[in-house]
Structure formats: structure tokens, C-alpha cells
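Field log, afternoon session.

UNIT: design team B
ACTIVITY: writing a sequence onto a fixed backbone
BACKBONE:
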């Protein structure tokens, strides 16, 4: 029996509600094999911005005592995706996922 390759499921990382701007509607970063998306919910709908995995130029992580800020820059010159209030482990996992998806994309 032949097996078909499966695409990995997207992983969602939610910012802490204890950080500025995330109390009612925490920011979510969704990392898939195709793109990185920042989803910010509002009272009516949500605001979503994304960068294709192939267009990610760099991932910057700035850590504090408890929380980490993450900035994902693109090669296309568009505004970077920024999010704050993630755990340090989540920020490192986001970076590792992006790098592994980019390596798989190039292979």
C-alpha cells in the first residue's frame, strides 16, 4: 500500500493575556508550511497579516524576564510581523519551525 506524504498541521501560538494589548483579544501567531500569520481578533472580525515562508528574511527574538517579543521580517520590503507577550519557549519554537519549513521548501 502506498503512503501519501502529509503536510504538517499549522501550529498556533497565543500571546499571554497578562501583556499589553492582549487582555481581551490575545494575538496569535500561526506557523504553517506555507506561511506565517499574525491574527489579532477584534469585537467584530479579526485582522490578519501573513508572510510566505519562502519570503521570510529573518526572525528576531527579544526576551525579557518573563515574556518574549518576536519580529518576523520579509524579503519583500513589507512591514514586519511583530507580536509581544509570548513565552520564551514559544518564541524559540516559532523560530525553529520557520527555519525547518524554509529548509524543507529549499530541498
Amino acid at each position: 500500500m502506498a503512503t501519501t506524504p502529509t503536510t504538517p498541521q499549522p501550529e498556533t501560538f497565543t500571546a499571554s493575556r497578562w501583556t499589553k494589548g492582549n487582555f481581551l483579544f490575545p494575538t496569535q501567531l500561526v506557523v504553517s508550511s506555507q506561511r506565517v500569520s499574525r491574527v489579532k481578533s477584534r469585537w467584530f472580525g479579526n485582522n490578519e497579516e501573513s508572510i510566505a515562508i519562502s519570503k521570510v528574511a529573518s526572525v528576531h527574538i527579544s526576551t525579557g524576564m518573563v515574556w518574549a517579543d518576536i519580529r518576523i521580517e520579509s524579503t519583500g520590503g513589507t512591514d514586519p510581523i511583530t507580536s509581544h507577550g509570548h513565552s520564551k519557549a514559544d518564541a524559540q519554537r516559532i523560530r525553529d519551525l520557520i527555519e525547518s519549513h524554509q529548509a524543507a521548501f529549499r530541498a
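LOG NOTE: The two ends are 26 Å apart (CA to CA).
NEXT ACTIVITY: expression trials, pending approval
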